[in-house]
Amino acid sequence: MYSRGLDKSDELEADRLGVVIAARGGYDAYGLPSVLQTLQAMSAQDSALALMFKTHPAPAERLNSLSENMQPLLDTYSSQPQLAERFVRQIKR
């Protein structure tokens, strides 16, 4: 499973659930889309990312899936209070 990855639909579902869980916890609903945009700009040939690009759907596909399936929910979550300060406090310990 490590080298093959999960089924593509499993990965896309994990993205959707991860966004919901993070947003309900007070984190930025657009955090994952932001990371995926960064990954999309990186080269799939980069040895540090090669395995991830082999075992996960392409960042563009993941972004499209989130946009198609979750845009109204992302917008709803983005208007709630975020708890970034809590996260920063925890990592500084």
Number of helices: 5
**End-to-end C-alpha gap:** 34 Å
How would you state the average pLDDT, rounded? 81
Helix content: 55-70%
- The share of residues in extended strands comes to under 5%
Give the tally of β-strands: 0
The global form is globular
Tell me the structural class: mainly alpha
The major pleated sheet works out as:
none
Query: Any idea how many domains?
Result: 1
User: Mind telling me the C-alpha Rg?
Assistant: 15 Å
Order of helices and strands: HHHHH
Q: Name the poorly predicted regions.
A: none
Keywords:
93 residues; mainly alpha; 5 helices; 67% helix
Outline the structure in words.
- With 93 residues, the protein is mainly α.
- It has one domain (8-91).
- 67% of the residues lie in helices and 0% in strands.
- The chain is built from five helices and no strands.
- It has helices at 8-24, 31-41, 50-55, 59-78, 84-91.
- Helix 1 (8-24) runs parallel beside helix 4 and helix 2 packs antiparallel against helix 4.
- The longest helix is centred in the last third of the chain and has 20 residues, at 59-78.
- The N and C termini lie far apart (34 Å).
Brief sketch in words of this structure:
The protein is mostly helical. The chain has helices spanning 8-24, 31-41, 50-55, 59-78, 84-91.
SSE inventory with pairings:
Layout: H1 8-24, H2 31-41, H3 50-55, H4 59-78, H5 84-91
Helix pairs in contact: 1-4, 2-4
